[in-house]
């Protein structure tokens, strides 16, 4: 009997504004198993919002995460922030092959992209036949300034990794949604689901309808505001405030005077975010379910508070809910880490399908 060689996978590697999140999954049938996972904080000022400011510092953090995770794979999937990407849906003749379509898009791209084409990375994906015309197909065009891609590639290469996929964060959310859909009524079919990923400095909204991404938006808001308020109120350094936020030990007035007002503000921000979607002029006027992700989503009772604000069933994201683990994984941390691993998990899922 011959042993089937293990299929190589790509590491899902999320470079966020404050940390590195790394995840390796294997897949058997439709089930996923966590092979390795790690979170590593980034040095202050190594990222400016979601752009890399210090490539070497980020590379060293990736290297530490790799060591911590004990992952052996040297290939990874990374993503760029939606705010750095221009996407445009265009129509093309249906009878073009990929090579002809690529040539045609290169010729026409300058009318869609406000930068010189030599300064951008360009890609496209055929979405399917145009609803109103069987002779054309809808094509999603995506372009990103080359420096945003190149900086990420340089950082992970410093850690000895080779990126094989560069995705867009919003589309990793669409990918990871498949792990959460089974826990929604009718598995999310014929429903509109909002996923709000509250990061440290940036919050993103992804609207999924019938399992497909139809709307995205980002705005400056995140858990860093709570950390900075803790710093100001209690005279702590940024690192001390972040540790106290996660582990406790703050004075008795922290919850009523600092934490609760921040949670109120967060719920209001989510509500405002959804109003942007409703006012965008689409045909969908309400959502059926809200999923909160990001580190801030782990705050106690935030889902219940947000649900009371917007009147929509609200749950906390956990892409790991149905995944098995190897013996080396600390299962106790998975529940609390789940909400902040949406992007890394989406990338890791793509990584299992790469070869």
Note down, in words, how this protein is organized.
Helix content is 35%, strand content 31%. By secondary structure, it is α/β, with parallel strands linked by helices. It has 2 domains: 11-83 and 147-352, ATPase, nucleotide binding domain (Nucleotidyltransferase, domain 5, 2-Layer Sandwich); 84-146, 2-Layer Sandwich (Dna Ligase, domain 1), CATH 3.30.1490. Strands 10-6-1-2-3-16 form a 6-stranded mixed sheet. A 5-stranded mixed sheet has the order 13-12-11-14-15, sandwiched between helices. The protein has a 3-stranded antiparallel sheet with strand order 7-9-8. The model is unreliable at 1-5 (pLDDT under 50).
């Amino acid at each position: 009997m011959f042993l089937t060689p293990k299929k190589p996978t790509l590491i899902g590697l999320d470079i966020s504004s404050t940390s590195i999140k790394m995840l390796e999954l294997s897949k058997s049938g439709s089930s996923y198993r966590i092979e390795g996972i790690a979170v590593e904080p980034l040095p202050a000022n190594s990222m400016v919002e979601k752009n890399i400011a210090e490539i070497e510092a980020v590379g060293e953090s990736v290297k530490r995460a790799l060591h911590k995770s004990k992952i052996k794979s040297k290939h990874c999937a990374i993503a760029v922030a939606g705010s750095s990407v221009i996407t445009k849906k265009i129509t093309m003749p249906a009878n073009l092959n990929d090579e002809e379509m690529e040539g045609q898009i290169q010729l026409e791209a300058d009318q869609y992209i406000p930068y010189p084409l030599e300064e951008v990375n360009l890609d496209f994906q055929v979405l399917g036949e145009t609803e109103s015309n069987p002779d054309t197909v809808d094509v999603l065009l995506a372009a990103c300034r080359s420096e945003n891609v190149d900086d990420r590639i340089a950082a992970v290469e410093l850690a000895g990794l080779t990126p094989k996929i560069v995705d867009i964060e919003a589309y990793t959310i669409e990918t990871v949604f498949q792990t959460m859909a089974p826990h929604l009524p009718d598995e999310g079919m014929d429903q509109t689901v909002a996923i709000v990923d509250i990061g440290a400095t940036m919050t993103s909204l992804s609207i999924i309808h019938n399992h497909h991404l139809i709307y995205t938006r980002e705005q400056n808001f995140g858990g860093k505001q709570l950390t900075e308020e803790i710093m100001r109120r209690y005279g702590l350094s940024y690192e001390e405030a972040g540790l106290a936020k996660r582990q406790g030990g703050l004075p008795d007035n922290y919850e009523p005077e600092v934490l609760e007002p921040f949670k109120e503000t967060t719920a209001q921000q989510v509500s405002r975010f959804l109003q942007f979607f409703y006012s965008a002029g689409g045909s969908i006027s309400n959502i059926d379910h809200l999923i909160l992700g990001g580190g801030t989503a782990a705050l106690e009772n935030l889902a219940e508070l947000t649900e009371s604000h917007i009147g929509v069933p609200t749950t906390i994201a956990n892409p790991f809910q149905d995944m098995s683990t190897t013996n080396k994984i600390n299962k106790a941390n998975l529940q609390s880490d789940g909400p902040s691993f949406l992007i890394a998990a989406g990338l890791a899922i793509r990584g299992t399908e790469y070869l």
